[in-house]
Amino acid sequence: MGSLPLPLALAARLLPVALLASAGWALAAGPSAATPSAEHEPTQKKTTDSASAPSTSAATKTYTASPAPCDGVPDATIKSLVPGAKTAGQEIASTDKAVRRTCSWNALEGFDYRWLDVSYEIKASDAAAEKAYKDRVADKSGGGAVPGLGDSAYSVVNLSTEDKQQTREGVLIVQASNALVVITYNGSDFETKKAPGTAEINKGAIKAAKEATAALKDGQKT
């Protein structure tokens, strides 16, 4: 059977990743605020304050840089989730690799198409990452929490149809300390025009998220 025409939205996914990278990424976090210096006080009061109050000189921040995103998921997982894809992946150009880095894998094997994105975002503090996480989750309805993954994790899977072609996409967002890990995983079958099941896409996204979150240890730490 000859190849079938792809829907416009999915055809865009199959363009060379270099074209997708041309837009670049906006910086995901600004510099942290400087800690104001304390005013001069009597020596005795300074000693008392430092003994009784917690230090505010250091912000809560575990990760100072993203790990290499194309190394965030093992080759065996890539072969399983994206059959036919080059395991090396393709890193998307970023305006600041210390802030955000993303790697993509996609392949069409026969009539089965799969796409996987792994993205790391390093925030200025745990609080900034928590706020960004909550904002992302608020924008996506119909999903649920994923227990035991990072400090917080949320997964949602949606089905879309264009020109009678179904595509099912899962998005999983993880907050781990001051880092966000975002997984996007989707698929279509261009012969049957059906999409993979919800469980298949969700399990694949969770597997990639667990491995990508574990790889955060390879990023620089304070």
Describe, in plain words, how this protein is organized in 3D.
The protein has 222 residues and is α+β, with helices and mostly antiparallel strands. It has a single domain, classed as Jelly Rolls (Sandwich). It contains six helices and seven strands. A seven-stranded antiparallel beta sheet has the order 1-2-3-7-6-5-4, with helices on both faces. A hairpin with a 2-residue loop joins strand 5 (152-162) and strand 6 (165-176). The longest helix is centred in the C-terminal third of the chain and has 17 residues, at 198-214. The chain is globular, with a radius of gyration of 21 Å.
In short:
The chain has 222 residues and is of the alpha+beta class.
Name the features:
about 220 residues; alpha+beta; Jelly Rolls; 7 strands; about 25% strand; globular; disordered N terminus
Task: Tell me the β content.
Answer: 25-35%
Secondary structure: number of strands: 7
From the 3D structure, determine the CATH topology.
Jelly Rolls
Shape: globular
Helix and strand content put the structural class at alpha+beta
> What is the CA–CA distance across the termini?
56 Å
Number of helices: 6
Largest beta sheet, briefly? 7 strands, antiparallel
Tell me the radius of gyration: 21 Å
CATH class: Mainly Beta
Tell me the strand order in the biggest sheet: 1-2-3-7-6-5-4
Give the second-level CATH assignment, the architecture.
Answer: Sandwich
Q: Which stretches are poorly predicted, pLDDT < 50 over at least 5 residues?
A: 1-12, 14-57
| Whole-number total of structural domains | 1
Portion of residues within helices: 25-40%
